[in-house]
Give the backbone structure.
Amino acid sequence: MPTSQSPSSALVVRGLRKYFGDVRAVDGLDLAVGSGECFGLLGPNGAGKTTTIEICEGLTRADSGEVELLGLRWEHDEHELRERLGIQLQETQLSDKLTVNETVRLFRSFYASGRAVDEVIGLVQLDEKRDARVGKLSGGQKQRLALACAIVGNPDLIFLDEPTTGLDPQSRRQLWELITDFKSHGRTIMLTTHYMDEAEVLCDRVAIVDHGRVIALGTPPELIASLGAEHVVEFSLAPGNAPLDEQTLGGLEEVRTARRVADGYELQVGALHRAVPSLLSLVASRGLELARLTTHSATLEDVFVSLTGRQLRDE
Amino acid sequence: MSDRGSDPKRDTDVKGGSLWQLITVRFKEYTREPEALFWSFGFPILLAIGLGIAFRSKPPDVVHVAVTNTGPRAAAIAAAIRADRGLAVELLPADSAAAALRTGRVALVATPAGGDSVTYQFDDTRPDALTARLMVNDAVQRGGGRRDLVPVGERHIRERGSRYIDFVVPGLLGMTIMGGGVWGLGYSIVDQRRKNLLKRLVATPMSRAEYLLSYVISRLVMLTIEVVVLLGSSVLLFGVPMRGSWLSVAAIIVVSALAFGGFGLLIASRSRTIEGVSGLMNLSMLPMWVLSGVFFSSENFPKAIQPIIKALPLTATNDALRANMLRGVEIGGLGPQMAVLFAWMIGCFLIALKIFRWR
């Protein structure tokens, strides 16, 4: 039975399912995004992120389940929802023949109310390109133009599907600044990404999605804390050395979990300054030699790996 | 509810609303594509000029014949034939004359035979050979001393409206209307669908009716320019007649343009790829290029399939334009053609809107 969610929810999804033939793109997915929140769907390619977000955007019909946005539903309130949502699709080629200004102006004309064209162009830092043809823009500039088209209707809820995929680091950081800026203006944002750093930087809460289901949900620090480990130690042995077993490694001081991975071993550890010496003394006592040893603070990627046994960016 | 007032600048800097924006965008996209401009304006003009050169007014055809150069009478026969200015004659050895006849370079070979007689060699299934037979025989008989019993006079008239250029211009106009509607809508809509732009547009509050209307309106404006260029050059350069009223021509063109606009929309309603839609366009237009009387009369096809040919939209357009331009039939007298066009227009739009894929 549909029950009214708390009024502060901008988006509520219940029991969403969408199958394409045998492929279960979305397989019983639940979400609630609070008003003013920046919410991230994090998962590998093919996890069902885009299908989920396009169902929320009213562009794809779900097989079953419910979607409620801003207290409205697609079945009854399509026009009002279209006025109040801002959408960026994963792959849209805006018309190459038009200028930046003409493109934003066209999108602005569809909305009954919205923001000034020049103001939006300024917000996405394309002032100098306002009379340039879209076909002449760089990848990052095109993404910022797509963002301009998404916000020109002054939306209450913004959907961004993989906003920085395929961009160089500088362009990504530029887009992050823009998104952070919208967030600070109290706008609700839902974005998908397969970059864990992006989710950590931008999102208040993250749902990790795999095989069309939410497998973990929380703030990035909560999710990382759920590992029970603050650091990750990765190492490999020199060629020809006898392998170590996971049980021995798991018994080392401060080591929470240990596993063999393709090119060596991965330990999730608490206190790094105790775990590393105990690993080194084990290696020395066995007469083995390290080929590589690296450590990093635990990230969402490690959360995903520990939940699924796979890397996020395995494709 | 979230705060819509956080950025309260509800501007009015977009003038004329979304339909106006969509139409101007259409024109900008179009005029910034030089190839498209050529196909719309350059091509019809070049076609008209090419046809004008091919079918320019020229003196009446001369019939080529040969005389076999055997015996002393050959030169006299050739001289008698040469007296008719409609005949061009040459004296050839027997084998060359036979070769010229075989290859069609001459229509008839006259050979002196026994006594005063002459033998004509020609293909009696060729119309020009039969003409040659009559003309050569007339010349030979006169040369032999025959006199006319009844004096005759001749007056030559060349009627505008009965030349090939007069026939083909309405056909070219119909073809332009069809091509413009089918290509203009089909290509552009499928291109937007392929680029996910159509999906992006329907994710806004954009009115779908306005989106489609912007295509129809921009198409009609472009077509007006194309028609003026094509008809203007035909009338000015070749004197093609416009016997009907301009109002009727305009009405036929607008109704045809809408019918082919619907047709183009229907073709573009599902395809996701340019290759797919190009195939559909050619498949649907090719039969009409052949059957609908663009370059030659559709009456040449068997009676049994005439009802099908008459039901094609291009046949209706071409027939209506010819009747109007060449015979001065006004719109009231073109009921069957207009009915066909309206049926296509309404049918295509209804089906296209029903099955149109917006994403």
Notes: Chain B has two domains: 16-55+163-355, 63-143. The two ends of chain B are 30 Å apart (CA to CA).
